[in-house]
Write a structure and sequence with these properties.
18% strand; alpha/beta; single chain; 4-stranded antiparallel beta sheet; 288 residues
C-alpha cells in the first residue's frame, strides 16, 4: 500500500478499549493497578447515554470529553483531535484531517496505512450496523462478557501499524464474569425501560415503587459491587494483554457511558438524563 508522508511518521499501534457501562466511581473504587499504570485517571463525560450512539461518537474520533468553561465547542474539538498525534506517534493530524468522512477507522486506514479491527461484545454493535465502516475486520464476539477471548485474537503487523477498538462487556449488566454460570446472574424485573430489551438485557429506566417490586438500596449496592468486581477482573486481563502488545502501542481505556444504581430512582442507562449516566473513566498512555 502506498502511504502518504504523514503515514510514514505514524509509529504507534493504537488500542481503544471501551468498558461498556462502566461509570467513573466504579472504576475508581476498583483501584485497577494495571490500567492506572497508563497515566492519570480522569473523570470525563460521554457524548451519549447508551451504547450505540456513544460508539458513533467514538468512531468519529471524539473520545469522552472534559467540561471546560469559556471555550467554544469547535476549539475543544480541534484541541482534542490534536491528541491523536501523540496517540499515533504521527504529525500534522488535525480536526480537518478527519473531514469530510469524520470516521476514525477510515482515516487511519486510508490516510495513515493502518490495519483496522474491531471486536465488540454487545449485539447492538453487530457488524450489520453502520458502525462497521473502515474496518479490515469487525467481529461480534461469541460471548458478551469475555475480554480474554479478544486478547487471544489480537494480531499486529510488522509492516504497518494496527488499530483495534475493543468493546468489553463484563462491566455491562448483568456484570457477569465469564466463569459465572448464567443461572447465577442477577435478574432485573420491575424496570420502566423505554428500550428495555434493546441490547438483550435491561437498558434502564425509572424504578417502580419498592412496594411493587424487589428493588431496595441493598440490592442496588450489590449490583454496583458486581460492576466493581468486573473492573478488578478486567485489570487482570489487561495485565495479560500488556505482556502481549508490541512496545510501540498506545492504549486508551474509557467507557461508552455510565450507569445508575438507584440514584434519584433510576437504574441502568439509556434515555435518561442524569450525570451518573454520562460520567466515565478515562486513562491513556504508551507502553514502554
Amino acid at each position: 500500500m502506498a502511504q502518504s508522508p504523514t503515514a510514514r511518521k505514524a509509529q504507534n499501534n493504537y488500542l481503544l478499549i471501551i468498558l461498556d457501562s462502566c461509570r467513573y466511581d466504579s472504576f475508581v473504587r476498583a483501584r485497577p493497578k494495571v490500567m492506572r499504570s497508563l497515566g492519570k485517571v480522569e473523570k470525563r463525560w460521554s457524548y451519549a447515554s447508551w451504547t450505540s450512539p456513544s460508539h458513533y461518537n467514538l468512531l468519529m474520533g471524539l473520545l469522552p470529553h472534559t467540561s471546560p468553561k469559556h471555550v467554544y465547542a469547535s476549539e475543544y474539538y480541534k484541541h482534542d483531535i490534536l491528541r491523536y498525534n501523540e496517540r499515533l506517534g504521527a504529525e500534522d493530524i488535525s480536526f480537518r484531517s478527519l473531514v469530510p468522512r469524520l470516521n476514525l477507522p477510515t482515516f487511519l486506514k486510508d490516510s495513515l496505512g493502518y490495519k483496522t479491527h474491531a471486536m465488540v461484545s454487545l449485539p447492538v454493535l453487530n457488524p450489520k450496523t453502520p458502525l462497521n465502516t473502515g474496518f479490515d475486520s469487525y467481529r461480534l464476539m461469541d460471548k458478551h462478557n469475555d475480554m480474554r477471548a479478544m486478547v487471544h485474537e489480537l494480531r499486529f503487523h510488522e509492516e504497518q501499524p494496527t488499530f483495534y477498538i475493543l468493546n468489553v462487556g463484563e462491566t455491562h449488566y448483568p456484570y457477569a464474569l465469564p466463569q459465572e454460570p448464567p443461572d447465577q446472574w442477577p435478574r432485573i424485573s420491575g424496570v420502566h425501560g423505554v428500550f428495555k430489551h434493546l441490547d438483550d438485557e435491561v437498558v434502564g429506566g425509572k424504578l417502580l415503587k419498592k412496594k411493587d417490586k424487589f428493588f431496595d438500596d441493598k440490592k442496588l449496592a450489590e449490583l454496583q459491587a458486581r460492576q466493581i468486581k468486573a473492573v478488578k477482573y478486567i485489570d487482570n486481563v489487561v495485565e495479560e494483554m500488556f505482556d502481549l502488545l508490541p512496545k510501540n502501542t498506545y492504549v486508551t481505556i474509557t467507557a461508552d457511558h455510565g450507569e445508575l444504581f438507584g440514584e434519584d430512582g433510576y437504574f441502568g442507562h439509556g434515555p435518561i438524563f442524569h450525570e451518573k449516566v454520562f460520567e466515565v473513566p478515562f486513562v491513556e498512555g504508551k507502553l514502554r
